[in-house]
Amino acid sequence: MEGRASRPSRPSEARQSLFATITLMKLRFQRLPGSFAICRLPANAPAPHLTASTPFTSITRTTDELSIVCPAEHAPGSAICETPWTCFKLQGPFPFSQTGVLASFLDPLAKGGVPIFAVATFDTDYVLVKEELAAKALDLLRDAGHQLIAEPGQEI
To answer: What class, spelled out in words, does domain 26-149 have in CATH?
Structure first.
């Protein structure tokens, strides 16, 4: 088949080919204080009332589930929850036209074997990693050139 580009023969080659085309950017991020829970309730469950004073809460409803990410101490008692997670907040905002933001942050984690849970908001992205892998994730992110920053009064 003359003139056709060869296709990767294995999924791992396809993934490497995909990431090879992404220009990785160096990002600034924060580690939010506390431990987080990722919870699931039935799709028709009422959304729990969670305080607005938490550093990060996400409530997403689909036809399949009601998904909640919140500080572990605020996890709904009736939900199926997985804890503890560490939450990293990428320093946004990022324009909707900008590509490769999340891929740049996730690439070193994927290569290092660190599973993630990602949530996007209007302005930025949040990436959660299991708490027992947080130190490894921080090392991988720093080695990739990403910069951990702190809010005033917060230790890194």
So the answer is: alpha beta
